[in-house]
Amino acid sequence: MTVSACDYMDYLNDALGVDVDSEHGAEEATNAALAEVERLKRVEQAFNAKTQPPMDRLLYLVAPTHDQCPVDDEGVVSRDLFVWATDASEAVKFWRDYYEIGDDEDLEEYPLGITDKVRVFECPIMPAGATSAAIGWGDIHAYGATTTERTELP
Questions:
Q1: Quick one: how far is CA 37 from the chain centroid?
Q2: Do the beta carbons of residue 117 and residue 146 sit within 8 Å?
Q3: Is residue 114 within 8 Å of 146, Cβ to Cβ?
Q4: What is the mean predicted confidence (pLDDT) over 70-80?
Q5: Cβ proximity of 107 and 98 under 8 Å
Q6: What is the CA radius of gyration of the chain?
């Protein structure tokens, strides 16, 4: 089947529900067609967001303050770590395990995450239909957490 450019546009306008007639110019038809395409994209994004499986784990950044980190010859040793966890307290458990920070017997030497709270940031995950964007620190939930409790920081 051979389709001309005019036929193509007629088929496309019919599919989009855009009526092109002598009363309405090409500019109005173009605007109506583009508006319908944008509406269909939003409907698809909403549908995709609804059909995404719920997240039972979130990405957290465990980031102790510099005064909570060890110091070596080169300065402060960062102990920041991204972890997948169910909540901020579980994130602290994974963080302690990753850095092999002592168990309960060593509380005097390693109280971080057991008695001393550690900063934990909940990293937003972009849904499949979301557009790329910058995320400000004000939009991120921050916690002061141990392995057993957590409080949201302002």
A1: 26
A2: yes
A3: yes
A4: 89
A5: no
A6: 27
